[in-house]
Amino acid sequence: MKLKIIIAVTILIILSSSLAFGQTTAGDWNDKGAESDTVNANNQFAFELYDQYKNANDNVFFSPYSILSAFEMAYEGARGKTASEIQSVFHFPPEADVRNPSFAELYRQINPQNASYQLSAANALWVQISYPLNASYLDAIESNYGGKARNLDFVKDAEGSRRTINSWVSSKTNNKIPELLAKGAISSLTSLVLTNAVYFKGKWSEPFREQLTQEKIFANADGTKIRCLMMNKQDHFRYNETNDYQAIALPYENDDLSMIIILPKNGKMAAFEKTLECTKFKNLSNSLDWEEVVISLPKFKFDTNYKMNDNLSMMGMPTTFSPDDADFTGMYEKAKAGGKNLYMGLVIHKAYVDVDEEGTEAAAATGTSMVTASAIAMEERQPKIFNADHPFIFGIVHENTGTILFLGKVNDPTK
Length: 415
What we know:
46% of the residues are buried. The longest helix is centred in the first third of the chain and has 18 residues, at 36-53. The protein has 2 domains: 2-202 and 302-353, Antithrombin, subunit I, domain 2 (Antithrombin, Chain I, domain 2, 2-Layer Sandwich); 205-299 and 363-410, Alpha-1-antitrypsin, domain 1 (Roll), CATH 2.30.39.10. It contains 11 helices and 15 strands. It starts with a strand and ends in a 5-residue tail after the last strand. By secondary structure, the chain is an alpha+beta fold. Strands 2, 6, 7, 8, 9, 10, 13, 14 and 15 form a 9-stranded mixed beta sheet that branches. A 6-stranded mixed beta sheet has the order 4-3-5-1-12-11, sandwiched between helices. The protein is elongated, with a radius of gyration of 22 Å.
């Protein structure tokens, strides 16, 4: 089985207010590394944002890391109430000498060199020609976040600027998101665009055999029963079960990343989600132990597209989106900008996931690294049954740091 591709992109469009009125792991997570402050912020934000989307019958999927990365860049230029609200929602360490090295170290680990899988994150700034951004802000973004500024002419060539940004997004996502920004998203009011793209393509440590895939019944979120293709396998996995849920970790090659799947027992999804937060997910992950499991998991492929202004405002940062009250004066020299105020006009996040079965030669070579012989052979027990035939939650976790790169819920694997 292979997770063919996971992609997430976040775009922050910052406008000038003067013309805008009237527009609307295989072990415990690492808590002690240099990157731990950013990891903790990321994971706490992940479940608070999930809480915004959990009640929908649609599938849910987003990258908290992508959104957090884009707002780290915005936070560097925020001041006053705007900064305090962003800091509260994203749980950033307020001290730059803590926050910046923490993010830089995580960014380094999420861009591995010479890995057998593909995992990368990229940041970029797109600036109106001659706009008076502070040199100190540009230096901070490039040195701490790897984001280089590129000049565009939003005033005279908004459409060409849109195509340029879309081309960058397409190149960073292996052409899977060729047109993130629709016509009209960029206008002469645009002064600055901040972008982040995260891309992952990896193979499971052990493949599912395609010939074992069968059509089975899946009870989707609204209770209707549908037919879908379910992949099947018996092997040893890290696993745990309580009265309320089952959980399993499926490792990718090299064991650097895992998909952790949480399957609340029938009828218990809503109750489980009410208590789901960062610490619970962490403890759940750390509680997994080796078991022989018969797993049935649906194939699924879907994309999501979120306009996040309202969600983020409800989470506690409305000032960011106020033309009058937003304060991003750490980014630019207001006097040189004619006294015009900057505010966040639009936040767009798009993600894509595709899971199906594909074997790989590397699977056999890495399979032994996930199996502890003594843990398996000590006693004979009946295998556990993990049958994901109803909605489940899943996260893609960077094992060394514990970072939740992607988080989602499959309510209907056929959509």
